[in-house]
Structure formats: structure tokens, C-alpha cells
């Protein structure tokens, strides 16, 4: 798995969910088509009349997710940048996604604005495997944020977390991050509170 | 279409996208299973170790969306309430969704907390139809928020908006809200600025 393949999965799913934050600080969500994926960049568009457009223009921060039929899920958190040469990009998007002509015929396509995401964090999950598999990547030159849990030096090696982990991903007092659900049961049940949340 | 059918569509899709806002005011998204839908309420669960759990506990506001194979899309904005009698609800969820036992075997299921959404706004879209169809509903006793555009009395009946509307949903200087994309092209092109955004 790599970051380009993660973006390709989103393009294959095509109708993915985009989250933004509105002017009241509330989450907003809708299904948006992934129009182009190339060179580790993801392209989409929306109409200038939509609340979604105003939320991206105000803030730019979006979160995207989709899951395919094989239960492979991708999450992308990043900043959407409005593209210059909008007409060129909209024409290219319609060329590669001809069904758009039924929704925005003729010149009406230019009420759409094209955006690109080239920086962000990407997470890949394979929920069809037992135990589940997760991998993290960065898009562009961003810093990867650590998540999940860590067993610290306070560990007394009692073995309780190994026994209770639902995915059996703790071995020799070490969490295999690749298979961890981030459920937190180990941290809750550790008798000496040796397990902490990462990246906080 | 009605609000119960909208929730049923989300349950049928099952793996839907949930958006929240994190401690930095950024949008967050992930795929979550709709576990139970009944009596115009939607039930889901998540583990206490997850960022998603902490975001719901802090704020409660979530936005949900999913689209089925017939291109019917549902959006739900609402407040998630933590359920009392958590063990009873988790047991019921596992009974109705037995595949959960592979992810959280035995007692580990109780690291999950059950939530219910019973108040909010619901939007239904049929993107498989031409023109597209949209309908709005409320869940519980919430006020419906108007969206989209309105042609005001300043209209000079020039007919320009009728000609340029991509979905041809303006007739006799009136927008048929049921088929409107909210793209805003009519408002942009109106020569006397007679068309305004609703609900602002």
C-alpha cells in the first residue's frame, strides 16, 4: 500500500464523502465525485452557489472517506486549494467524467470551481482482514500525526492487555500498530495505567 | 419518501460516513456502521479509546451521509446522545449485527458505547433521476432550515434564469426547489440581482 494507491481507491469509489465545518462550527457532509487523481493529487469541483463551496473558500480544511466492496477504507484529511485556470480544469474534468454533462449541460459547467488537495494525512484500513490492517501516509510535505496507544516503561508485564485485546495485537508488551483498532480497552484495563494515548 | 425511509436507506447502506469537528475546529470523518434504525431513530456505537468517541462526547453534533447503488443519497445532521443502559444496547447491537463479534469478541464488546440520534435535519437526493430530486425532512421536533435560492419581487421577468438553469427547474420565474442543484448560476446571472440565497 502507498499513498498514490490510497488516492486511486478513492477515485475508483468515485462517490466519496466530504466533511467540512460550517460557519457555526458544526460538521457538514455530502457525497462528492473524485474527478481526477494523478501525481499524488486529488481533484474535485463544486458549484459557487453551494454551502460546501463557501465552507471550503473560508477554511479549506476537508476530510474525505470512502470504502470499496473489499472493505478497504481510505481517510484523507487535507487542505483544498482552488485552482487557477478554472475553465481549463473544468473542461478537463468533464472530458474525464462525461456523465457530468447531464447535470451541468453546455456553458452551465462554468458555475463549477475546481479544487486540488495535495497536502494532508492519509489513513488506509483493510477491514476485510482478521486482524484488521491499518497504515498511515502523508500527502505532500506534511508531518504525520501519531495516533492510537503506547505501552510505556511503567509496564509491569502482567500480560492482561495481551489477553483482552480484541484484535490480539499486543505481543510482549508491545502494540502492533498495524492491527490496532484504537479501541482503548488495553489502556482502560491496565492495572498500573502504563498505556497512554499517542500524539496528544 | 419520508424520514423513516431515509433512515432505512442509511441502515441498508450500513457503512456510512460520519463527520465530526475535532478539538482544533477541523473536520474529521470515518466510516461507521448504522447498527439499528427504528421509530425514526438511528443507533450506532464506537469505542471509548477513539478520537471519534471524544469528539461526540465533547460536542454531540454529527453529520452522516451515504449513497446506495441506485444513486439515492441521504444526509443527516443531528445530535448524538449517549444511551443509558449501555450493556443492554451493546448486546442488542451485537445480536442484530453478529459480524461485530469478529471485531470485538467476548467481553471486549463493552469497550463500545452506544449512541442514538433522534433529532436533526434529513435531506434526501435522487441523483439517478433527470432532473435530480431533493426533499428535506426533520427528525424529532427540530425546525427545518431553508436552503437554496429564491426569486424575489425585484424580478423583471426577463427569462434569463429559465434559459440557463442546468436542471431546467425554473418555470414562470419560480424555482422548483424539488429539482434545484443549489448551484447558484441563476443568482449569478440575474441582471437585476433579484435572486437571493434562502435561510441566511
Unreliable segments of chain A (pLDDT under 50, ≥5 consecutive)?
A: none
Q: Provide the gyration radius of chain A in Å.
A: 20 Å
Largest interface, with counts of residues having CB < 8 Å to the other chain, equals: A-B, 53 and 53 residues
**SS content category of chain A:** alpha+beta
Distance between the termini of chain A: 27 Å
Quaternary state, please? homodimer
Main sheet properties of chain A: 8 strands, antiparallel
CATH topology of the largest domain in chain A: Pnp Oxidase, Chain A
Query: Care to count the β-strands of chain A?
Result: 12
Say which CATH homologous superfamily of the largest domain in chain A is assigned: Electron Transport, Fmn-binding Protein, Chain A
Q: What series of H and E elements makes up the topology of chain A?
A: HEEEEHEEHHEEEHEEHE
SS element count, helices of chain A: 6
Q: Return the average pLDDT of chain A rounded to an integer.
A: 95
Name the beta content range of chain A. 35-45%
Q: CATH top level of the largest domain in chain A? A: Mainly Beta
Give the second-level CATH assignment, the architecture of the largest domain in chain A: Roll
The residue fraction in helices of chain A comes out at 10-25%
**Global morphology of chain A:** elongated
How many independent structural domains of chain A?
A: 2
Amino acid at each position: 500500500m502507498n499513498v498514490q494507491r490510497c488516492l486511486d481507491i478513492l477515485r475508483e469509489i468515485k462517490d466519496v464523502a466530504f466533511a467540512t465545518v460550517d460557519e457555526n462550527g458544526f460538521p457538514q457532509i455530502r457525497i462528492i465525485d473524485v474527478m481526477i487523481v494523478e501525481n499524488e493529487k486529488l481533484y474535485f469541483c463544486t458549484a459557487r452557489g453551494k454551502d460546501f463551496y463557501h465552507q471550503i473558500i473560508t477554511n479549506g480544511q476537508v476530510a474525505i472517506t470512502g470504502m470499496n466492496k473489499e472493505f478497504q477504507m481510505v481517510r484523507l484529511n487535507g487542505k483544498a486549494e482552488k485552482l487557477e485556470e478554472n475553465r481549463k480544469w473544468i473542461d478537463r474534468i468533464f472530458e474525464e467524467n462525461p456523465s457530468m454533462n447531464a447535470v451541468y449541460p453546455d456553458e452551465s459547467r462554468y458555475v463549477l470551481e475546481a479544487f486540488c488537495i495535495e497536502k494532508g494525512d492519509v489513513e488506509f484500513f483493510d477491514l476485510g482482514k482478521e486482524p484488521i490492517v491499518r497504515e498511515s501516509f502523508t500527502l505532500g510535505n506534511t508531518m504525520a500525526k501519531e495516533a492510537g496507544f503506547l505501552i510505556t516503561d511503567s509496564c509491569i508485564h502482567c500480560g492482561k492487555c495481551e489477553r483482552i485485546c480484541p484484535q490480539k495485537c499486543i505481543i510482549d508488551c508491545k502494540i502492533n500498530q498495524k492491527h490496532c483498532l484504537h479501541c482503548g480497552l488495553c489502556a482502560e484495563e491496565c492495572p498500573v495505567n502504563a498505556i497512554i494515548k499517542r500524539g496528544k
